[in-house]
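Protein modeling request. Please complete all fields; requests missing the sequence field cannot be processed.
Requester role: graduate student
Desired output: 3D structure, token encoding
Chains: 1
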Amino acid sequence: MPQNSRESLSRAHAISSPVEKKWLKQHLRGEYYFLRAHRLSIYKIEHHEQGRQILRQLIMNENEDESFVKVLYTVLLLQSITCLITKIKMKLCDRMQSTKPIK
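Delivered output (103 residues):
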């Protein structure tokens, strides 16, 4: 296959979503390196399709992991606050019991 048609083939089927491009740049320096890491050719349409599917799954998993971490952090924060409130209540109860009523 001539070089020009190879270049046009790879450009026509390149990953085009800005989110996907940004993710690739941050994690793997770009689409070429991503496809090579998965033993896919930049010159085959089917390989670009496979690469897109893999990439979308990776992005989705990363987003789910981030969401899980946020939920977990929130739960832990609420547990800490609940524990703190319980300690404050106990101290207040102790103080109230230790004071004698005025006659």
